[in-house]
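Subject: for your reference before the review

Hello V.,

The reviewers asked for a structural picture of the protein, and I figured it would be easier to keep everything in one thread rather than splitting it across files. Below is the amino acid sequence we used in the manuscript, unchanged from the supplementary table.
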Amino acid sequence: MLSSCSSIDCPVENKVYCKYRLAGPVYELTDTLTVIAIRPNLSDTILLNREEEASDFVLPVSYIYPEDVLVLKLVDSKASVYTDTVRIKKTNIPHFDSVDCSPRYFHHIDQVTFTRHTLDSIIIKNSSLNYDTTGGHLLLYFKSGH
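And here is what came back from the structure prediction:
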C-alpha cells in the first residue's frame, strides 16, 4: 500500500505593502500624521493613526484597484490641521506562488500625483510593489515646518 503526502506552501502573509520614506530637509515629521485610504464603494479606512516623529512608514496596497487614494492629515502642536491627497496609479500584476495557491497581485507604480499643501514632491524610488519593503518605494519631500 502506498501513501503520499502533499504539502502546499502558500504564503500566510500575502499582503503587498508600500514603504514611504521622508527625504530632503524634513526627514522626520514634528507633526502627528494620520493616513486615510479612500476606497471606491467602501468606507474610508485609517491605515496609520496619529503617528508621531515619523521618518518612514509602511502601508498596505489595495488588492486590485487601479488607483489608491490616500489622505495625509498632519496635526501640529497648535492643533492646526493640514491635509494632502496622494493618488497612486498602478498596474496590477497577477502573481502565482504555486498552482495550488490562489493568485495574488503584485503592482507596478505608474504615476503619483498629489496636492501641495504640506508636500513639496514625491519621488518614485522603486516602482515594483511586492512582498519586499526593505528598500522603500516612495520618497516624500515635505515643506519645512512639518
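For the response letter, the relevant points are probably these. Confidence is low (pLDDT under 50) at residues 1-6. The radius of gyration is 18 Å.

Happy to draft the paragraph if you're swamped.

O.
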